[in-house]
Amino acid sequence: MEDMKKRKMDEGSNNGSGETSTTQDYLRSLLDPLNKSQLVDLLSRLGSQYPSIAEEIKGLASADPVHRKLFVRGLAWNTTSETLCAAFQMHGEIEEGAVIYDKATGKSRGYGFITYKHMESAQSALGAPSRLIDSRMAVCNLACEGLTGASTTPDLAQRKLYVGGLSPEISSEMLLNFFGRYGDIEEGSVAYDKDTNESRGFGFVTYKTVEAAKKAIDDPHKLFGGRTIIVKLADTHRSKTVQTHLPAPMVPLQVPMGAGGYAQPGKAPAGGGAPAGYAYPQTVAPYPASSYPNPPVAPAPYPTQSRISYAPVPSKKEPLGHSPTPPVGMGGYAPYYYPKQ
């Protein structure tokens, strides 16, 4: 009897597993034609209704580094990997963090990466994307977004300002404190030389709102650090700079012929090769017969006259000596002969 019960239980379990596999295959065949947006909507609805599905989605997302890795730009040239990690460790445990250096020069390239151990830590850091690191305003966003993060919104051209005429003593922190009176700043710093780390006399400030940027531009008091500074949209300054550095227009020149001029029939061109810019031998396409019609025949200016025949005149031998009759000259006058001197 016990053996019979075990057989029935084994058969039931086998049938259940078969039905489960069949159901999964059937669901996969239904989900396969759906696009990404449809699948995201479906899973978000199921996750909001069933907590177990939501936890499974969170587990898969947290295991993927794409949700835990941040891209940090706007770093100072002297910022190290240790300084970068120290600025972000307040949000949670850091798995990896490093500043990217140029392989040829060994100098910082002005950006780095932070990878958190948990996805929630990365989300906390993204809640305050701008922060001061070594007197420079650095900005972070998900590494998968690259430079197409939150700061590259369509209104970025109206929020980013160019500040020129700065004193060499003005630091990035002083710049941010001065322009912070107009509104919240998302990003900003003084432009420094990579080799000397000295100020280049200008900088950039990006506000979080367009209204704050307009206030900074419209303020008539442009004195900062004992100098009159220039404040305008960075996009306008960039377009003018590009126009002043445009190369001169290039005039196309005809390639000169090699020695020997044009190829002659039956002879190879000079130098053993074809003339520069021309194929050898050259073939000329025939002109169509109807391309150039024959010119019209001009009418004759005078009527054609018929030829008049005259009777033949017999030739006779004239006698030697003076002519018995004086020859008649032009117009019927007798010719005048000068005596021989």
Automatic annotation (TrEMBL):
Show where the RRM domain sits. 68-168, 159-236
Comp. bias regions, Basic and acidic residues:
1-11
Q: Fetch the PROSITE patterns from UniProt.
A: RRM
| Chain intervals for the UniProt region annotation (Disordered) | 1-23, 293-326
- Provide the alphabetized UniProt keywords: RNA-binding
Question: According to the UniProt entry, which residue ranges have a biased composition of type Pro residues?
Answer: 293-302
Q: Where is the composition biased (Polar residues)?
A: 12-23
The GO terms describing molecular function are: RNA binding
PANTHER family noted in UniProt: HETEROGENEOUS NUCLEAR RIBONUCLEOPROTEIN 87F-RELATED
- Name of the protein described by the UniProt record: UBP1-associated protein 2C-like
Lineage, broadest ranks: Eukaryota, Viridiplantae, Streptophyta, Embryophyta, Tracheophyta
